[in-house]
Amino acid sequence: MASVLHFSYILGPVGSGRGYCNCQYHASRFCRQILNKYRSRTTPGPSISLPLHSTWTAKRSPLSSNITCSATDRSDPEISSAARIRNEVLSPFRSVRMFFYLAFVASGSLGGLIAITQLIGALANPARAADVPEILKGLSIDVAAVSLFAFLYSRENKAKNAQLARLSREESLSNLKLRVDEKKIISVNNLRGIARLVICSGPASYIMESFKRSEPFTESLLERGVLVVSFTTDGNIPSFEFEESEEMKEFTRKRKRLWQLTPVYVSEWSKWLDEQKRTAGISPESPVYLSLRLDGRVRGSGVGYPPWNAFVAQLPPVKGIWSGLLDGMDGRVL
Questions:
Q1: At 327, phi and psi to the nearest 5?
Q2: Each residue of 107-142: pLDDT tens digit?
Q3: In this structure, what DSSP letter does residue 205 have?
Q4: Cis peptide before 62, with omega less than 30 degrees from 0?
């Protein structure tokens, strides 16, 4: 028997959920049984049981054993099923179109293959030389059809992937956390149908200037359900100054309400914003703003300060006779 014995059992299950937990349990049990059986045959004494995800090394003369048991899920993160369902709802006939595009490509390819064989036979047989122009005509039609439907399929597939990526980012945004006050933390999803968020991301000086520029439009923005999320990228905390006089008490309350939301779990917000900038081809250091619709989707974004006056002019009020009727008039989705 060799003086050193290495035994490794590695299990990488493809499934997930409850079945995956059962795989972990059976993998661990199998490893322990193999080890105990091996120890009972080689050395006297009691058997040794190993826990899951452990590495055990025993040194005895002249025998040394190194046993590693591992049961890990190595599946890559994928787009969620909710995003795929939303994609099908937004474009219900895309899958049908893509199916027919593939069918036409296959049909044209088969027709082209047949035309090529006929062309080879006609070129090899002088008696069929008169058929060559007609065969070339059919072959050109097949090639044109394959090229056209392949282009349409490629364009449709790119649009599908782009929409899935956007929906996935929107779903990630809806799961981000916001602090309302010292005792209350909510997710962005909780504000769907209630508020139109405007996310301001940049250094503290950019946040302060955006705060000052929003002052003349405070009441109009609140009437349209706008709430601001300020995210600083330089690590400094902006210090908002409010007028505390008695005659300005009501206006100060509205100002605080407009700017009351702050991000929680900064690393997750930073990751999401960096992905948005990368998608739009914007430098990571650039200060940006993002405007969300009532349904939580991104309606507008840009580099620089938010256009508060444009928000007031474009967005309908969330209360009054126009509420409900104009809820979808938030602008197109980016």
A1: -60, -30
A2: 999 999 999 999 898 888 888 888 888 999 999 999
A3: H
A4: yes
